[in-house]
Write the structure tokens for this entry.
Amino acid sequence: GLGVATFDGHTWSFQNLPLDGGDEVSQLSCATTASCVGISLNGEWVRSRFGGWQVMGGFGGGAQNQGSSPRMLSCPTTNLCFAAATSGVLYELEGARWSRLGYLFRESWARRLLEMIAPTPAVSLSCLTARVCVAVDGGGNGYLKQT
């Protein structure tokens, strides 16, 4: 079944995730040993608090719009996560609510056209703190977001 393996420093254990059979988790990020968040390919997100996983709801992008559905995830604290879609759309999770922040890179009509012709999707996202995130796109361009 769908699940996640956890290492406690000595042994691995497996837990099933409460997702539908056709859904898969694309990313997991844990801020502490007791707090993890995951995002699925179908645009849902799951959370683990003290060992129990629960489906929290949809992202809003969903599988019908692959470009805006998040694929990268980084949680610098237990109550804060950032996610990026392959189109570069950036999302923030505060508590239990996701909101769209904008784009990893400066949005423009020229950039939109270029992305339609030759996409350079974000392939990696890492948020060091609540204020600093770094990302790399498929074209090898790096991005630094400081708030």
